[in-house]
Amino acid sequence: MIILVANLGSTSFKFRLLDMADEQQLARGGVERIGDPQSAAFVEIGDARTEFEIAAPDHGAAVAACLERLTDPQQGCLGSVSDVAAIGFKTVHGGRVTGVQRVTEDVLAAMAEMNAICPAHNPPYIAAMRQLGERMPDMPLVAAFETGFHATIPERLRHYAVPYEWAEEFQLKRWGFHGASHRYVATRMRELTGRDDLRLITCHLGGSSSVCASRGGQSVATSMGMSPQTGLPQNNRVGDFDAYALPMLAERTGQSVDGVLAEMAARGGLLGLSGSSGDIRDLYEAAGRGDARAQLALDVFTSAIRHYLGAYLVELGGADAIAFTAGIGENRAEVRAAVCGGLTELGIELDDDANATATGETAIHAAASRTQIWIVPTNEELIVARQTKECLTAR
Description:
The protein is an alpha/beta fold. It has helices at residues 59-70, 105-112, 122-135, 164-170, 179-193, 245-253, 257-267, 269-274, 280-288, 292-316, 326-331, 333-340, 352-357, 380-394; strands at 2-8, 13-19, 24-32, 39-45, 48-54, 84-89, 100-102, 141-144, 199-204, 210-215, 218-222, 321-325, 362-363, 372-375.
C-alpha cells in the first residue's frame, strides 16, 4: 500500500510518498508560493532531485502537478495515480471530531468550527481537501488529527476552570497538539528502552514547541491547550498568557481584541522578547555578542520548558526517560543543557561531551543518570501514513 502524506501551509504543500509494505520513503517534494503566477516546486526520488516551476492557483493543482511528476514514464516512481491508496493529512484541530477520519463534509464542518482557534492551519487544509476531492473524487482522503494522541489525557488535566457547559458547547478544553511527533517519539522510545511501561517526557522544540508526558505510550499531559498558541513561547507566538490582560491592551493600544491577538500571534514569542528575531540560531548569535534581550528570550524559553518538565515529573511520579526532538531539540546542545542543568538531585544528568557532539538518534545521559536522556529525530509523516493505512484497512 502506497500512501502520500500531505503537509499544508497557506501557500505551500509538502509531501512524502511511502510504501507501507516496508515503510520506506519512495519520494518527497513540495510546492511553494501557491497562488502566484508561477509556483516553485521540487520532487526528489531517491538521489534524483528535480526543481521546476508550475502554475498552481490552488493546493489541488499543486498536488496534481506533483503526482504528474511521480507518474512520469521516464523519471517517476509510480505507474499511475491509482497506485496511491490514499492521501493522509496531518490535520490540526477538529474540535468535536478527532482521531483518524475519512474526510467527509461533517469532518470539514467540524474543522471549520475551529477556524478561529487555528486560523493559520484549518482554513488552508479545508480548502485543499475540498479542491482535491473535486479533482480526484476516487482518491480516499484521510485526516489524522494532531489532537488524537492526547485523547488519553485524564479529564482533570483537560478541563479549564470555566463554566462546565462551555466545554460541552464550545469544545473549550486543553486539546494538545504535535500529536504525530509525540506519538512517534513515544513509540520509538519504547523500542529503544524495551519498556512498555515507560514514563517519558518528550520535548518537541522547533518553530512551534510543546512538552508532553506519556506513560506506556499514551499521553497523560501536554503543554498546549485549546489552541496551538498556548504553552511554551514559540518563535513568534506568546504561549501561556493571562486572558484578562487583553481588554487592557485593547484599550491602551487603541486596537480591537482581534487586533491585539493578531499582533501577539505575529510579533509575540521569542521575536517579541528579543525585538530582533524568533529564530533560535539568531538569538544565540546575538546573545553571544552581549545582546541582553536575546538572552532574555532564550532564558524565558528554556525556563518555560523546565516549568513543564517539573510539572510532568510530579504527574508521572518521576521519569524513566526524557527525549528531545524537532529542529531545536535535535540540533541545539545549548538548549538541552539549559533544560537539564542543575537537576542531578532529581536523577537527571547529561553527559556534556555526548550532548555537545550528538548527531541523529542517540543517548546523551551520563552513566550515573537515573533518567535516560535521548535525542530522537521525529517522523510525523510515518505516523500519519500508518494511521492512514489503519483507517483504510479497518474499513
